[in-house]
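Record pair follows.
FIRST:
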Amino acid sequence: MTLLPGLLFILLGDAARCRLQDGSFTFNGDVHHYAVATNTVYVATNDTLYQLRHDLTLVQSVPQRGVLKGGAQVQFHRVSGTDFSNATFRINVLLPLVESDTLISCGVIDKECGHCEVLKLMDISSLQHSESIQVGSLDHSNASVAVLVKVEKNTYILTALRQSQNQKERTSCTTTLVTVQLQNAEKNQEGGIFSLVDLYGGNPLIESSGEVEFVDGFQISSTMYLLSNVRSGDKSNRIRLIWLKGGGSKTLTLKSLRGATLRVSEAGGHRLVASSVIPGEQQVLWSGVFSADVGRTNTELLVFDISPDFSGEQKPDPDFGSKIRDTSAPEPKTLKPKAVLFRQSNMTSVLAVRHKTWVVFFIGTGDGQLIKLAVDKDYHTSCPMVLYRADDDRQVFPKIQLDPVDRNYVYMPVRNQMKRVPVSNCSMYRDVKECWSAQDPHCVWCGSKDSCTFEADCVDSDWLSIPEDYQEKMVSHRVAKEPTGQITLNVQTHLTAGQMAQSNFACQFSAGSIALQCTSGPAPMFPQCTCILPNGPLPAEVFVNMSLGKTQLLERLTLTNCSDIRGPPTSVLCRQCFEAGCSWSKNKCSWENEGVRNDSVCKRMVSGIKFSTPEISSIDPGVVSFYGRNHAVLYGRNLSDVTRVRLQARTECKPQESPVWNNTGTSLTFHIPSAESKGVVKVCALLPDGSCHGSSTITYQSSPSCSNIVPNSTWLSGKRKLTIIGSHLDFVEGVTQSHAPQEVRLPQNRTYQNLTYETVAAVNAQGPFPSTVFLKVGNETLPCTPTITVYPEPKFISFKSIIVGDYLRITIEKKADKLEMMKTELSVSAVLGEERFNCTMTTKESHNETDTFACEIQNTRVAEFQHLMIKYGDKTVKLQRKSSFPFIWLLLFLLPIPCIIITVVMVYRSKQKKLTAKMNSDMENLELDIRNDIRQGFVDLQTEQIGLIENVGAIPFLDYNHFASRIFFPERGTLMKLCIKDIGQDAGKVQLDECCLVLSQLIHNRLFLTSMVHALEEQKSFTIKNKCALASLLTVALHGDLLYLTEVMEVLLKDLMQQNSNTHSKLLLRGTESTVEKLLTNWMSICLYGFLRESVGQHLFLMVSALTQQIKKGPVDYVTEKALYTLSEDWLLWQAQDFSSLKLKVLFAVGSDGELSEPLEVNSLSCDTVEQVKEKILSTFKSKFGFPFNIPLSEVRIEYERDGCFVPLEEVDGSSEVVGEVTMLNTLKHYKVPDGATIKVLQRKSHPQQGSVKDDENFSRKYFHLIDPDVDEDQRKDPERKKLKLKEVHLTKLLSTKVAVHSFVENLFKSIWGLTQGRAPHAIKYFFDFLDAQAADMKITDPDVLHIWKTNSLPLRFWINILKNPQFVFDMEKTPQLEGCLSVIAQAFMDSFSLTESQLGKHTPTNKLLYAKDIPRFKQEVRAYYKQIREQSEITESEFKSFLQEESKKHHNEFDETAALRELYKFIQSYFTEIKDKLNENGAPTELTEQLHHLKTQFDGLKSCSWS
């Protein structure tokens, strides 16, 4: 009965765990480790161990989840998939021990305790032994090694562990292992399995003196080899090799240590990335991939002879040895490379295999390629070939292995897949010449099969393959002239042949169709045949037919009398000579037996034809996909004679050449051909003489891919704009669709991740139907996985219009469909007679059966139009108004009856109405005003739309140092000016710099720096302002060493956590009451600056721009700064009077003669003051032309054209309204400026002492604008201002503003808590992992505490600062109205991270109510965001170290570190005694205290130094 459920589990189980058609296997998680033994492959992912057959079919998988049991000695017990588990066993060591039929798996349980298991080799579900012990590294890192070694009859585990200065302290359950040790691998050994104890007692070991990262370890015969990167002190990286000779015990083995240093070049500083032994040979040959930089951009493959040297007296090693090491040990011997084989960017792994006399290298790269490189015995390389190429940029695992059963395959892990890749693609070569030209040692031409295949697949010995060394041609010939005058033709085949092919070797010569009679000569003998030609003239062509078994080789030879090849000694003549089979001697062509046969002499000769030497300056584009690119343009000089463009990947490979056209002499057009591999190729310009000049490069990258299309539908007539989302989309040249493949659409707005195009029309088709989108890249057409649906045309039903205020609102009804048409896709105009009125789209509402679109026509009183013209895509439809003819007749018939009744009633009640009219008049007016206000608020709410184009062009980002300094020093005081380094700033005085150097060295001592910070914080006189200044000065001083700054921050954070652990753990990082809290803010700002600019900046700028535009749509009180359109109730202008929009034609006086510019259209309001109009004019000028107007605002005056002359507009003049003692500022309404009026801008001739009335100290008491002053009702002249206004009526303005900017706010929030390609920025992932680790160390189990810590450290400390202060990021000013809106948005942002549920009611503040419905959805997104970061694979230490070093390099020399150090010393000087006491309290060495005194002496000696 258990069989059926078992089968169902296998068939219906985990869909993500499967073997694909190409022979690869996909796992649930990324591959962490794998091992190969006999016919089995073992793969460990994050939480599962897999057992696969050699062909990657699944045998079984075992989850590595379980529970921890026990008291003092905790034990891990595995549980089944459905049972409760609280721990995960992550495997870092996998060692198959075939002799014992066991598999050793070791690793760590939840980043804490070491754990090992011994499993049955052929059944990993069978547990043989389990033990809580550390074997190998506890970290998932490639910088540690664990291998099985044989010492006489014992098998040991040789572990070599990474050593780092910032190694994390482990818990008490962890065994302390040193650098190199030997542990038992079997139970029956002395001390038991995993024991470190030697036969003679003690724990023999090898320690290291510096930072060590191990790359590889292996054993050959009795010698063990360990290869590592070593860094001691300030020295650059060195690559070390250790030899250990297997003795009778562990002690003797480890004491036999000898070492050497591998030197790649004299420059030094290289790192070893990957390693592989070259099998065979008596000498031990070894290959390694070396990197010249941390990022592995430049990598090269080298060969060394690493044969062990145990001769001579054993000397101490400077890097490795027993516990007591001699630091003055001599440098070990140096090994230099035998050959540099291959250079390629970002190589990550290598496997060397010997095949006959050739060595074949399989090389994995960081961009997902597996490259095969064949090398002959003289280290001459053939052209590399690509065996596998990923479409994306996934990195190949650092370890590649051969299939032990079928050695024609290699295993290559890539992310969450195990690939089984054939070592060769022999079958792709169609004839014997192609098979030979591939230069692939694995391939032979099989005569019996007449195909290219593996040698093992050729059943008899009738086969041909490449020779034992590299040759350029399969057949070559030489022409020699004997002293007797006879001419001898020697034909040589460069082949290796099977016995059957060799024994059946024959040659036949012919001239055209006539057999050539050779007069005499030796019989054909493989690999050569000779023909002594008959006397007389040489035949122009000779055909040689060579038979090797069943294979026929026909070679056509062009013969020329060598002495007839004459002319000036040029490279062209030289090559012609060698191609004829002759040789070169004394600058002329001679017979083969009379000169030099090496054609390299031709390369040193000139061409003989005088061409202008071409120069290449650039190529557009310079980066393409591996499918190539059509119509590329090469720019340069002297290009007129260029005939082709040559692309050369490597000198061993045949170059690709592309013809040119549109050659202007300075530019030319050519096609970039496709490439087999990703990488960089050299480009030169080819002249008619065969010479190639100029040096440029083209980079081949992955191909474009698409993951989504938005929207995912179109209409039959086409021309709908769709956006394709994916990667490498900037390489796309055109887009087609399956229903019209011949029509190619050019992409618009291409970026790496997005591409916009217009859809193709479907002619003579009926919708709906699916259509596939294809991307044209080079000469390839790539399908998009997501398809789109083509639907019938949208059907518009009717429209109606209504006048609202000074504009006409038209509502259009459309039948509901699945097109999801947006209002921005419609263009509507209303037709009346011959005149058309543009209608601006405002809103869209969707219902069950209809969609409703609304648009507005401004400044019109026409209510009835004949019809509408609606345009979408490339189609325009005419929409008629519904006929009202029957209704009119009915109305005319019934109209007299109610008229009679109404007349009687009116006569009867007229007297009563007159009596009550006066009583109700005021009430009606009040009711009418309130109704109009409410109606207008409702209309605003329904029609609100911000007219902002999403592509805002150049965003005014501040450069890094101004951004960082505003974060570090938000008050922008003296410290900020001191620390920003000006361009061209001179260095400080030499004497002072020496003092700063001493201080710099001192703060680079972690004990001193942490003691200093703690000492200062303990002083009551050291204020919060001082703490922030200290943190920012330290940030500037240590900006060049972010890695050290991060370490110090971690130490200080741990100290802070210990202080708060017992009382206020949830308040950690909430405020800025300590130095480290401000330090964390600065650190986040540095590390997230790139993410802020690339991912969040545009969305933030769009939101701020949208808010600014929305605020400007309505009145803003010039005195109180309150606005009608805002998000903050505190800044709401609810007393605003009626206003109208005006479009002004603004003219600028240019030149000395007062000429006027072309008119500039500026939007303004009738209620705007003169100063506000000026501001809007200058703002519109800047946004229109991209630069500010050349006259400052204070010197600008404006005039309004009335009746042919210009009237000056002033803020206050004799006509200004005065209420009591308060003067109203003049507005456009006051001057009766109409819509379309002309305004002239001039410069004031005299500079007033006071630029604006706003500069008056009593401005707010002496003047008013829109908000009435506190005076008696009778003193008010304007009846409009006597109307009663209710604040609550205008609260809808808050909501309408929210609706207008909501999409921008949502996009901003999603960009902040969205993950780019599923990964959080390095700093966020690293810091959140740090908080997780600290919570675990402090035994904090409450998940709310961790959530609060993360929220306080990232959103509260960094993002809120950015959201509320966009002027920190952009070159812009923040107005009070904008600040009020940003505070509301920032509050909503923080509420999204809150764990408490808000109780809402009628007394709840409006800023809480405004986003109340959105907050629950935002909270879900935040929880998912935190969860994704937690589940993301851990960032390695080397990765994060590289990131920090790169950030330091990017902003090197941005700040004045000397100034920061001077300011830091002021703190030290003020609290010198307290710092010294704290150092003594912390047990600081005497040298550190002396260094502090030396610092004081140095600074005290600067008599001539003036402090800022």
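SECOND:
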Amino acid sequence: MAQRVQSAQEFLQDSFVPLVAALCSEEAEKVTRKNNLGFCELIKPFCRLTSEVHMRDPNNQLHIIKNLKIAVNNIITQPPQQGAIRKLLNDVVTVSQPAEGLVANVITAGDYDLNISDLSVKASVPWYSSWKDTLMGLNTSTFYSATTPWFEAYRESFLQSMPPSDHEFLNHYVACMLVVSSSEPEPVEQFLKLSQEQHQIQHSNEYSYPKWFIPNTLKYYVLLHDVSLGEEQRADSIYEEMKQRYGTQGCYLLKINSRGSNRGADEQIPDPWSQYLQKNTIQTQEPYEDGPYTVISNKNSDHFIPLDGLGNDSKVDGLSNNFKSHPLQLDHTSESGCFDGTDYVKPNSSMHESKKSNTWTPHGTCLTLTDHDRIRQFIQEFTFRGLLPHIEKTIRQLNDQLISRKGLSRSLFSATKKWFSGSKVPEKSVNELKSTSGLLYPPEAPELQIRKMADLCFLVQHYELAYNCYHTAKKDFLNDQAMLYAAGALEMAAVSAFLQPGAPRPYPAHYMDTAIQTYRDICKNMMLAERCVLLSAEVLKSQSKYSEAAALLIRLTSEDSDLRSALLLEQAAHCFINMKSPMVRKFAFHMILAGHRYSKAGQKKHALRCYCQAMQVYKGKGWSLAEDHINFTIGRQSFTLRQLDNAVSAFRHILINDSKQSAAQQGAFLREYLYVYRNVSQLSPDGPLPQLPLPYINSSATRVFFGHDRRPSEGEKQAATHISLDQEYDSEFSYQWKELEEQAVAAANKGTALSNFQPTQYCLNKYSDNSRFPLGVVEEPITVEVAFRNPLKVPLLLTDLSLLWKFQPKDYNSKNNGETKEVETSGKDMIGAEVISEFLMNSEETKMARLKLFPHQTGELHILGVVYNLGTIQSTSVLDGVDPSAVLQTGKFISNGMSVRGRQDLEIQGPRLNSTKEEKTSIKYGPDRRLDPIITEEMPLLEVFFINFPTGLLCGEIRKTYVEFMNVGKCPLTGVKVVSKRPEFFTFGGSSTILTPLSPSASEHCSAYKTVVKHSTSLYSLTSSADSSDFGVGTGCQPEVIDVPLPDSVLLPGASVQLPMWLRGPDEEGVHEINFLFYYESIRKHSKMCHRVLRHTAVICTSRSLTVRATVYRSNALEDGKGDGDNMLVFVDVENINTSEAGVKEFHIVQVSSNSKNWKLQESINLSEDKDIKLANREKGKLCLKAVRCKHSVENYTFADIVFGSEQIISSTSPCADFFFRSLYSDLKRTRSQQSVHTSQGAAKPSPDNAVRLIQKCSEVDLNIIVLWKAYVVEDNKQLILEGQHHVVLHTVGKEAFSFPQKQESSEIGLFNFFRPENTSVPARPSLDQFSSLIKTSLHYPETYNHPFHQKSLCIVPVTLLLSNCSQADVDVIIDLRHKTTSPETLEIHGSFTWLGQTQYKLQLKSQEVSSLQLKACFVHTGVYNLGTPRVFAKLSDQVTLFETSQQNSMPALIIIGNV
């Protein structure tokens, strides 16, 4: 229950005070009216005694009365109507609102704002201490003031507007003041007239109202003297006469108006009347929403509003003693007296005008502080000398009467009851006594005398005697089954027991409970029941029994009065929150109930406040349906009160929460929101656009794209893929593009990488680096993709959707770079904006909107947000089985006419900073500038189209296509380069490119190669030479970066050029994504943008064709027929591994070419007559080719072609040489990367010494084989001829090489790479294979030798042993002719011949020297012998270690010895 400044004791004392009637003459009223006050109003602020008062009880004991207050009211003869009372109470509550400046949704308690939302988290766990301690400290704080002044005002008005009843005397008049002015001609006669008038009102049957305490009412005669008029002697003489007539105890001379009304307001006199008169004017004011009235409740705001109508003067119309109309009288008479809180009744016009003037006019203008003291003294004298002696005397009389009558009356009465009932009547329960609630006592009944005495004792604070009397009366009433009287006695007995000083007995709460039940259920008197509840709840609250107080308050809520129920429920809610362990959720629940009842009672402001306070408990707890209900009600009430901003905010919360409501309910909420919002916007049509809550915008998912949309493909023309918003972001691809661009920029910058390089960003998203201001180009669109999400189950229709922007024009070319240009242009001249007329979002749909801006000037652009009309569409029924979402997709959408215009800002939070220590320890975010582009001056814009670009190729297939370059910008472009990670895939031709047909149609049936008709039929090679730098792979070049050979190197605006481009299918089968990056620059150098790029990703599917394996061996013949000293044999295996899926019938090997600086193919050693080599599916062909060392300079590469067909393909020209050099480069790069991987895994390789390197070099060979082929393909009943080439790089003698990369080893490494790799360092000692290549040996002898053994038994055959030093160093050679006898097999083979002469020879061979040694072999039998037995040992001349050169790989030297 809300706290108040008054204690419970003070409240109860002031609720029941002695009532004094006042009857004034017309002249007396005029005297007081000079101060704009009636007589009762004049003395009202002084009616509380400031000193203690003494009186004696019936036992002659002295009794002290403290802080006594009396109430003086005009006599009103008409009882107030119930409807008028209800209207009064309703107005009191309406006018009393929370103090201005306080937040509506915060419970304010003194200086402490109890914000439920922050503390209710703790309320969800069992008794949290921190908040409890705060509340306990709060309860004891001196600053803890009343939180519900409307309840205090209601209670005060309710208690004093209760009509008097016959079962109690507390609100009966004890005395009557007769007031006459001294200026009247015959004041004494006027007193007599007033006295007769009072007597007639009290004793005549004509008047049943007001009620009087005892027949002999005290009359107190007051002579009112206006000091400003003078005539003090006359006043004094009249007063003397009065004293003689009425006694000094019964009259008083009151002098007022010491200050003339015409005097200036030079002296500031306090105005103690304003706080009371504000209350009094409530029922005469036209109620309106934002009235200036506030009930100020402090310890001086006592209850001066009397029961007969708040103390309003009844004579304001100038008619003396007009007792017929009550201030609470309604203008129209209503039999039922019912009253609706929303219907306000306009009061009497004269009264209204009078009170209206009173409200704004000062009071007491003719009174001085001395007059204030005189009035205060007058009240003291009246109380001391008149009222209290009269009450004391009355109590004695009543006591004596009761004592004298009790014997006979009570005994007779008891005897009669015993006669009829037989014994003492036991007290019956309330339910048994229902039929006796209508019993009435005569006024002189002893039981009523006891009650009258008890009430008098209570009024003068003699609570012990009052309690005893109430207790006695209670028993009598219960015995008589007079339940209304018994309930009254129980009620006051409980209050008396509580108010007794020293608390001799506990508060009998059960008395109050019985009284409430009796009033409500038996007597059907809700007003008396309500009074009981108000009194008892205050007592229980003072004893910290908040739970019992809340139960009591809730018990009296009913349907008959919404206002009362609302107030009591609100107080119950405050009880729950004031408990020792605050029950926050119960508080909120009962605040909701109170808000509902306030709303029904027409108290919109109070209803809104209750809902707002409860909202803080339910907010954020996941009780979404409860939140929705509260917010909806808050919105409705705020709208009714014209608090439109609050209404919009409340409905906004309903829409932005993840609502669990049904679609129909959500649609209703949305329509309500739109309706309220539209009303708000109509109030300020020219104001700023407010923020809309729907649909949600995922700001971080906003993407910004710079440039035009990609052009669609036209027939065989395929536009470069570039970048579009339809592509998903891939960080790996993004890094690859950055690398490519960096390579292109470095190549354009003469090979040096830029330290401050920043990649071009065409599409900005949440993954990109948005720390820099992006660059846009004039006249090129900027597309912003906004991610909308509709959280509702109803569709949303956005119309006129466009971007909101701010632009600052700047000229970046002027000398004062960056200065703002002073230009007067409209927004559309600077930036054009695309407007989407209709954008439909189905229920719970996430949808992207792409909005464009077209900048027409350079400067700084800031994209702020989106602006649109939010509306809904007409609901579509699904009863016919048609999904409404399907209907919505077609044609124009039918809006329901309810739409509002607003905006949503795009605010993107940058990435969390985490680089420095300070950033790691705090939460800091970097900037995100994707929505703040800088618009630069015009740039060229390149578009690239690929003509007849294939989607499928055979591995190694060569295909010629055309590329069209077009400049669609407004300034010339130059320096076009293309960069790719796969340079071996394509070429534009080298510098030796011949003029091929320039159009795709002219080259349709031509070969992709440069060919010449071969006239010779021999298989000897045709040689040519070329430099690798002609093909972009020379030393210092970057083969990945290729200059596009544009004519004149410039492409003018609007111009286009077509260039041939050759493609070669990658050697691995499968799908390949090959990235091209086209780099180009403007002719004019710009400060902001140096270059631009265009991306293209080609997807090629390759299928298997041929696989080529090749091995090179040194020839055994040291000299051939032509005298060439050094030659080798190359064995080439070609296998058709095509799976026939591509429709390939067969492959033809048309040419084998070699490429080397040192070697060249000389001829084909094929024994078959058929020169054409055809390979059907899964067939394998073998070629044996002879290679010889070149004799010319080693600077250029020598190409040698061995042609098997009728046309020679010139392999040293484009595209054959291009692809060869590119594949050579990529192979070399792959080898290096593998070596670097192995190096990083193992230890660093020790560098071998020169000797070892010389030995290793002997086995190395630098020979590359190109196999050119044609494939015959049947496609669509047409035969096509495809061309292609495979490359084999031969590094080592005797080691097989392949045309495709070997993946087996790498896969094994990948499989076992979790083991620690062993040290893979190269040994310092050469291998046996390398030594076998150091010295090449050859035996020259006759293949057949006939000898006449019968003539000569020994056959001696001369044999020449040729030794060739293959290294570049001097070699010492030892030839050992002794046979090995280690095994029996060698004895069998070699035992039949022997070498004659020296068994060992030593000689030294210079670099590349060939030496011969003459040997003699001796045979004794005919047969076939192997002469290859000499063992050759060699060592470098400057080395010590000797090694045997192995001859196991050489062919056996067989000789046939015959007999003649």
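COMMENT: The mean pLDDT is 77.
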